[in-house]
Amino acid sequence: MTKLYWFRGAAILLLLLSFQTAARDDGLAPLIADELDISLSKARGGAGAIFLYAEDQLDEYDFDDLIDAVPEMDSLLDAAPEVDRDSRFGRMSDRLSDFDSSRGGLAGLAASFEELNMDAEMISDFLPIIYDYVDSESGERIANLLEDVFPNEF
Q: Does any domain span residue 22?
């Protein structure tokens, strides 16, 4: 009888551990990749570029709240591509930053998507998925902060 309880306990523990592992595999990047039918590396890089732009626009405390909402934030930020300053959007980013850092940052965001071989228009496909994810993970306040960072053109 004791062995049966031990066996059931071990089985339940293994089941819980498998759910926890599956939850770690889920996250924002796989969600974006599935919904947009793109590679996981493009989903990570695009989300990371979006969050890098948001980091420049938000104050430190608001960005910390955003980090709490996206557990894989560090890996997403690391996946954001380096912008080629000689590319069309890279040059535009540099020029615009001299006049308006926000517009220069948007051009840099577009350049990041270009580096990932995605059109800048894809940013508008990423954003609603990111907003919904952040809203579900941390609530409307943080999602609204993020939405306020991006102009309505997206």
A: no
